[in-house]
Amino acid sequence: MIEAVLTAKPRGPGAARLHAALKELEYEFIRLMRTRAYSLSVLGFPLMFYLLFGIGQRSSAAAQYVIAGYSCFGLGSACLFGIGLGIAFERAQGWLELKWASPMPRLVYLAAKMAASAAFALIVMGLLIGLGVTAGSAHVSLTQAAELAAILLVGSIPFTALGLLVALIVPPKAAAGLINLVYIPLSFASGFWMPVRMLPQWLQAIAPALPTYHLGRLALGVFGLASGAHALEHWLVLAGFTVLMFAAAWITFVRSEAKSP
Amino acid sequence: MSATAPAMPAPAEPAPLARLREVTKRYGPLAALDRFSLTLRRGEVTALLGPNGAGKTTAVRLLLGLTRPDAGTAEVLGRNPRSSAARTAIGAMLQVANAPDSLSVREQIELFRSYYPRPLATAELLNRTGLAALEHRRFGTLSGGQRQRVLFALAICGDPEVVFLDEPTVGLDIQTRRQVWSEIRALAAAGKAVLLTTHYLEEADALAHRIVLIERGRVARTGTPHEIKHSIATRRIRCRTRLTAAALRELPTVTGVEADRDGVVIYAHEPQRVLRAMLPLDETLSDLEVSAASLEDAFLALTHTR
């Protein structure tokens, strides 16, 4: 389909790069969709939780909360499993090395994984809003949906950075378990599941130190459900976290490259 | 090895397409390569042959730009292997445990084609690698030999000038191996430079214009398969004799002695001198047989693994 858009035969370097990037994105998305362990759990869990906990909410605000929270949860699992697990496996199997020996632009590899994961997050959001508006009591305007989508798209960057670091430090066979072990409590403590003020006191104290908490606040802010800090503060925390994760990933990568025979 | 006659010698000194010059690469205290040089020329298959851990993979990774030398230079088309001009001129078949197994053969090939400015047509690739009937199969459902053929297709899909094949026929049945061999010959005939690493000595003998023997990160010897075999000028004498191995080792030009079933095998540069010395010492000498050492014998003798 994407090929049809780029019909010009002799490609310049810029067009060639774009072509390679779109091809990579298209096939990464197909790969993830066909990997049932991924597509079923990333799309299925937020929907299942919504049906369990969201559909019965009487107030629109509560239903909006669940949509925002589970969308963030969906984004996190899409990125951590799509990027973290994906790269960890391709690295362990020698596939990454083969790709890096090819002329594939290296940034395209990561960007395609990020965009494909973000696409899954947007599908999750769309399904949640669809369910919430039709079967639930949520009111979501088009502007709100667009705003939430934009936040999820930008929010995929810090999760990509975290996923990349996970891929580089975690043994691939243990990656899925470890991601769950870290991510489920992280999303819980960040208010993706229920408002932070309903959590135990000590968790409430920790929450602002978690990058995911700030993403959650931004998503809730779309519906006017986050009071307190200014949005800019949340974006700054996420930006700082992203830089930190990419730096750590870069250092880890350079070290492993020097060691590997 | 007359059935697998060595490839025709290439014309003298064609242009180098890729080279390692005096390269040293260390991993910690261990030098994987130690002032190692290698030149890949247009229209030539170069076989890099050596025991495990000798530095073959490190040499390939340096030319692919996957790692940098500590000293010396790596060049492809006269450029840094990491430059985009060099990378679009390279195709590689590496040892891969698995590929994303949810993509089909055709999809995988189309993806790699998109990385190159002037790729070969997908249909041509499928036909040349015998994958046409398998194009819609997912990678995960392919046999080991079929996977190797997909990886070979990915290596050549960009119509590269320099092709790296790391153990390309490992795990292939004899028939498929011969197919890959003829494709490798076709690459050289089309003017590509091919670097082949292999454990199959027969393969190097059959395909390579030049063999580079590598041992502990250094070039142990280099030459045509014919030269490698003759440079050590080893003949193989098989016979039954009363003489002890220790006594045989003392004979002129003998390089090695080993027991072989009920007889003994003696490796020597000049078998006639050995026999002249043996005959007066042992009147029971029997079942005498003198032959040229195979490439495998030469290889083992050179790399001291015997």
SSE pattern of chain A: HHHHHHHHHHH
Provide the β-strand percentage band of chain B. 25-35%
Count of extended strands of chain B: 13
User: In the CATH hierarchy, what is the class of the largest domain in chain B?
Assistant: Alpha Beta
Using the alpha-carbon principal axes, give the shape of chain A.
Answer: globular
- Please state how the strands of the largest beta sheet of chain B are arranged side by side: 5-6-7-3-8-9
What fraction of the residues of chain A are assigned to beta strands by DSSP? under 5%
The residue ranges of chain A in which pLDDT falls below 50 over 5 or more consecutive positions are 1-10
Broad structural category of chain B? alpha/beta
Describe this entry's structure for a reader.
The complex is a heterodimer of chains A (261) and B (306). Chain A is mainly α and 261 residues long. Chain A has one domain. Helix content of chain A is 79%, strand content 0%. Chain A contains 11 helices and no strands. In chain A, α3 packs parallel to α6 and α4 (60-92) packs parallel to α7. The longest helix of chain A is centred in the first third of the chain and has 33 residues, at 60-92. Chain A is globular, with a radius of gyration of 19 Å. Chain B is α/β, with parallel strands linked by helices. Chain B folds into 2 domains: 2-230, P-loop containing nucleotide triphosphate hydrolases (Rossmann fold, 3-Layer(aba) Sandwich), CATH 3.40.50; 232-302, Alpha-Beta Plaits (2-Layer Sandwich). The radius of gyration of chain B is 22 Å and the shape is elongated.
Give the tags:
heterodimer; A: 261 residues; mainly alpha; 11 helices; 0% strand; B: 306 residues; alpha/beta; Alpha-Beta Plaits; six-stranded mixed beta sheet; four-stranded antiparallel beta sheet; 29% strand; elongated
Short description:
The complex is a heterodimer of chains A (261) and B (306). By secondary structure, chain A is mainly α.
Q: Topology of this protein?
A:
The complex is a heterodimer of chains A (261) and B (306).
Chain A: H1 2-5, H2 13-34, H3 36-54, H4 60-92, H5 95-101, H6 106-134, H7 142-169, H8 172-189, H9 201-206, H10 211-221, H11 231-259
Helix pairs in contact in A: 2-6, 3-4, 3-6, 4-6, 4-7, 4-8, 4-10, 6-7, 7-10, 7-11, 10-11
Chain B: E1 16-27, E2 30-41, E3 45-49, H1 56-63, E4 71-76, H2 84-87, E5 90-93, H3 105-113, H4 122-128, H5 144-156, E6 162-166, H6 174-189, E7 193-198, H7 201-207, E8 210-215, E9 218-223, H8 225-231, E10 235-240, H9 245-249, E11 254-260, E12 263-268, H10 271-281, E13 286-292, H11 295-302
Parallel strand pairs in B: 3-7, 3-8, 5-6, 6-7
Antiparallel strand pairs in B: 1-2, 1-4, 8-9, 10-12, 10-13, 11-12
